[in-house]
Design brief:
The chain is an alpha+beta fold and 467 residues long. Helix content is 30%, strand content 34%.
């Protein structure tokens, strides 16, 4: 399976993700040509430039609006006509963002309502350089119309609209309003629009069958905006990262932006550690800031190992004594030693863990300190379920501590098939992979038939009649 894995050890921003995807795209010239043609009416240009972070070479994607790249990567969001600075769009890594000084003159700050009621024009006098810039505040529906007007594949426009819906809903929830009352500052919204559409177009060109992502590093500390100082992650980013593994870490600054979070939420099917991949290409998307850690988003494109991949690889390499099968996935083992629980209580704990969705639960007799006999309780579960099962261990056993161990696991793919016999229907589990095929009747079905016949037939008798 063609798999794309996104590594977010230094967060995620729209321009950095776009640059990383650009590096692994085989149609780089086509991408830049089509994007620049599509965004020419908005006076937006994209340029891929080489960049180096901590000695590693990559690409920085420069998005220029009206000939200038947004210096601090910010976009203002207007809610009910009140301006507030928000970090949407191509937010590169930074320790602090300071709102630009806007001197609103009595005759220079006007709201011009268009017939459709969607656009508001503002003239902001930027002091002290004296440059005046006219900004248009675009609302959510206007941005969707602009996306639809782009001369790009329909799939790209559909994806971009969906990402903006996620972004808009998050902003609306943070501001306790609705999408209809969210307006985006012109430069910031166009900058973010180019990032979103560019990433969607690159996903379209690369066409991965599966997109996976690492847990997201959001940074730490605070970021300054027009309304004051906000904690990292910014409120909209935190909203978008709900139910997604994320962490703060020791890097001071905003590492994940709302745009980056929205793109990851939309495209990534799962947030997990990198699975076994036969990597074909690697891309580095560089941010603007420099840290002790390379400031980049890294992506891997390759083939993941499904059951069919294993079988094919086994056939090609079975004569190689050094060949090792790659694992299918990774599981977590949680265990503890118990010497002060009754057998009934331990049995209940086993049942509770299994009912909670554990992949397997088992006990092992052990000899503990002071020669006390004890029980080793072990639960196998998905790594992302660690915290939930840890709570169950502490709640339903007497242990004061648990141990963790990750295991790589190879497995056959299994399906259930119902077969008709003279005794009735029997489910058969068929397993295959690695060039191997197995099947086995479900014990509970065999047992039910034996009990139905008042134990006058044996399990072997029922098995013989199973087609």
């Amino acid at each position: 399976m063609k798999t794309l894995y996104i590594e977010c050890n230094m967060g995620a921003a729209g321009d950095m993700l776009m640059a990383a995807l650009y590096e692994i795209c085989s149609e780089k010239e086509l991408f830049l040509q089509k994007m620049n043609e599509a965004f020419a009416p908005f006076d937006i240009t994209l340029k891929a430039e080489p960049a180096v972070k901590c000695g590693v070479g990559g690409t920085h994607m420069t998005v220029s609006v009206h000939g200038e790249e947004e210096a601090v990567d910010t976009a203002a969001v207007s809610v009910h006509g009140e301006d507030s600075l928000r970090q949407t769009g191509t937010a590169s890594l930074r320790k602090e963002v300071t709102a630009p000084s806007h001197e609103h003159q009595p005759d220079g700050h006007s709201h011009e309502h268009q017939p459709d009621g969607h656009s508001h024009e503002h003239v902001h006098e930027h002091q002290p350089d004296g440059h005046s810039h006219e900004h248009v505040h675009r609302d959510y529906h206007t941005i969707l119309k602009e996306i639809q007007s782009l001369p790009l594949p329909e799939k790209v426009k559909t994806d971009a609209a969906a990402v903006y819906t996620l972004l808009g809903n998050a902003e609306a929830k943070v501001h306790r309003t609705t999408l209809e009352h969210i307006h985006f500052h012109e430069v910031g919204s166009l900058d973010a629009l180019a990032d979103v559409v560019g990433c969607c177009y690159l996903f379209y060109l690369i066409a991965p069958e599966e997109v996976l992502c690492s847990p997201v590093h959001v940074g730490s500390g605070f970021v300054k905006c027009a309304h004051g100082v906000l904690p990292v992650p910014a409120p909209a980013t935190a909203e978008l990262l709900k139910d997604i593994p994320s962490y703060t870490g020791a890097v001071a600054g905003e590492l994940c932006t709302p745009t980056g979070a929205a793109l990851l939420r939309y495209f990534a099917a799962k947030f997990t550690s990198m699975p076994p991949l036969s990597v074909k290409s690697i891309g580095y998307g560089m941010g603007k800031k420099d840290f002790e850690i390379a400031n980049c988003v890294r992506v891997f494109l390759g083939e993941s190992f499904s059951g069919e991949n294993h079988a094919a690889s086994a056939g090609e390499n079975s004569n190689d004594e050094n060949y090792e099968f790659p694992c299918d996935d990774t599981v977590l083992s949680i265990s503890c030693n118990l010497d002060d629980m009754t057998g009934e209580a331990i049995g209940l704990a086993v049942e509770i863990l299994l009912a909670a969705g554990a992949l397997d639960v088992y006990t092992t007799p052990v000899q503990m300190k002071k020669n006390r006999p004890g029980v080793l309780l072990t639960c196998i579960c998905p790594p992302e379920e660690r915290d939930r099962f840890t709570v169950l261990f502490f709640l339903h056993t007497t242990t004061r501590g648990v141990r963790y161990q990750l295991y790589e696991r190879a497995k056959l793919e299994s399906v259930l098939e119902t077969r008709h016999s003279s005794y009735g229907d029997i489910r058969v589990k068929k397993s295959s992979g690695y060039g191997i095929e197995k099947e086995k009747p479900e014990f509970e079905d065999l047992k039910a038939i034996v009990m139905k016949h008042k134990c006058t037939i044996s399990l072997e008798d029922v098995k013989k009649h199973c087609p």
